[in-house]
Design brief:
CATH architecture of the largest domain: 2-Layer Sandwich
Number of helices: 13
Oligomer: single chain
Strand order of the largest sheet: 3-6-5-4
Distance between the termini: 22 Å
Helix content: 40-55%
Order of helices and strands: HHHHHEEHHHEHEHEHEEEHH
Number of domains: 3
CATH topology of the largest domain: Beta Polymerase, domain 2
Largest sheet: 4 strands, mixed
Shape: globular
């Protein structure tokens, strides 16, 4: 497989978001309270729910409130408390700062990987058990064909796993992936490709290719590869491995290391542009 690195201009990632497990407190604590936000709670919750692809019932199940509560808020009949607003937004996959931003909880990814790849024997966590239960209650896993269920699982996980919001992720000025990989091998650093770049091994869906690496330690790997933080121009993204994303890494012909198949699918659903189309094509290919 021949790969080259390219991508549109972008700014470096902001500091990693302050994330908490939805299963623990069901909300993101923002640094400041914006008084105007409460005045528009109906629009915020409705927008977050629709962006997350959830019905009012599904959003209510994930947030642990009644469907009528969601309806009353969206109709402007109920002003939620700050904690309730945060909780509902997080359940829909978003957090509130100056504007809606992706809410990231990698326990959702662990849940999908555990259900799709039970042979990997990924340990359960409190968070993964929470998602499994709530997805079941919301109807996401009920009475579906295997392919449709896999597609739904990956989309649900991606809802809480935006690539641009991953804790510790950083963007660097682009270099050819083979040079980066060689440098990481020389330094003994673990790595694997994911996202749009890795998806090309499985699908021909055309998209702007952005090179994304999982690595053991972002700063150390960037130093080993001689990468510099990017403020404009083509970029490569480094994301730190965790127990889930490092499981199932495979090496293919040509020396490329790829994240596990289903991890790439989730990451593409969590991306932008035509990356979700790549993910859908991969799911379809898996069940041919």
């Amino acid at each position: 497989m021949q790969m080259t690195a390219d991508g549109p201009g972008s700014t470096a990632l902001a500091d990693e978001p302050e994330c908490v497990h939805i299963s623990d407190v069901l909300c993101i604590r923002v640094n400041r309270f914006y008084p105007g936000c409460m005045l528009d709670a109906a629009r915020l919750i409705s927008e977050a729910r629709l962006l997350g692809g959830l019905s009012r019932r599904q959003a209510a199940v994930m947030a642990g409130v009644s469907a009528s509560t969601i309806s009353r808020i969206e109709l402007g009949q109920l002003d939620p408390t700050v904690s309730m607003l945060d909780r509902i937004l997080a359940a829909c996959g978003w957090r509130l700062d100056e504007s809606l931003r992706p809410f990231v909880d990698m326990d959702a990814v662990r849940t999908a990987r555990r259900l799709l790849e039970p042979e990997l024997d990924l340990p359960a966590t409190v968070g993964s058990e929470f998602y499994a239960t709530r997805w079941e209650q919301s109807g996401a896993l009920q009475a579906k064909a295997e392919q449709a269920r896999a597609d739904e699982l990956c989309r649900r996980a991606a809802q809480y796993a935006s690539l641009s919001g991953r804790p510790g992720a950083r963007k660097y000025a682009a270099r050819d992936w083979t040079r980066i990989a060689h440098s990481l091998n020389e330094a003994g650093e673990p790595w694997a490709l994911t996202g749009a770049f890795a998806a090309r091994a499985y699908t021909k869906v055309a998209t702007v290719v952005r090179t994304t690496f999982y690595v053991g330690d972002v700063a150390r790997s960037a130093a080993a590869a001689g990468l510099e933080l990017s403020s404009s121009g083509p970029y490569v993204t480094l994301i730190p491995f965790d127990e889930t994303t490092s499981t199932g890494v495979q090496e293919i012909e040509g020396g490329a290391r790829l994240a596990a198949f289903w991890q790439i699918v989730i990451d593409c659903f969590a991306g932008n542009g035509r990356m979700p189309d790549q993910a859908a094509a991969m799911v379809e290919e898996a069940y041919r």
